[in-house]
Specification:
eight-stranded mixed beta sheet; alpha+beta; 11 strands; three-stranded antiparallel beta sheet
Length: 182
């Protein structure tokens, strides 16, 4: 995990960086369980208007009262999975990604934890959680030929029958580039 910290962005993104996209932020929670690093993912509720049933990181849309993208990631994480993180627990952020279909500009923040407290999902936003072994999941990378019509050079990851694609996969690809392909 020591490879992640130096690769995190030094300059924070600002909401204006989203330009005409919807500004959003997520929290990439990497923690240890059973002696292995895991990444905490959620399956979005099938009742949501967009990206229903998709695998994502906890997070959501920026609102003016958040002031920063980090505040968005922390607020949304607490709302969705009931875990409160403090700003000093955040190691930094990866490069922002954009969704292809819904025009969201997503800033992924990273926290590295020895262990996680018990989570509590908000059923209106989250259907379930997926606590995936990080390295095993990253090594499952393959071209996402199903979505080539939306964008070329896209990838997907699979864990326990769950397919991660889209913006979440582009965030995981950054971790793959840092931890596996080096």
């Amino acid at each position: 995990m020591s490879l992640i910290r130096p690769a995190l962005e030094a300059e924070p993104y600002l909401p204006a960086d989203a330009a005409s996209a919807t500004p959003s932020a997520v929290l990439v929670i990497i923690h240890y369980h059973g002696g292995k690093s895991h990444v905490f993912l959620t399956r979005r509720s099938s009742a949501l208007k967009s990206h229903r049933g998709e695998i994502s990181f906890p997070g959501g849309r920026y609102v003016d009262s958040d002031d920063t993208f980090l505040a968005t990631a922390l607020r949304e994480t607490e709302e969705e999975i009931g875990i409160r993180f403090r700003p000093e627990q955040i190691a930094g952020n990866l490069r922002a990604v954009r969704t292809i279909t819904s025009n969201h500009f997503i800033v992924p923040f990273v926290t590295l934890q020895d262990e996680l407290p018990e989570h509590r999902i908000s059923a209106s936003e989250v259907e379930s959680v997926i606590d995936a072994p990080l390295i095993e999941t990253l090594k499952s990378i393959e071209p996402d030929t199903e979505h080539y019509s939306l964008a070329k050079g896209v990838f997907k990851f699979t864990y326990d029958g769950n397919v991660v694609w889209g913006a979440t996969a582009r965030i995981l690809k950054q971790l793959y580039d840092l931890l596996i392909s080096k």
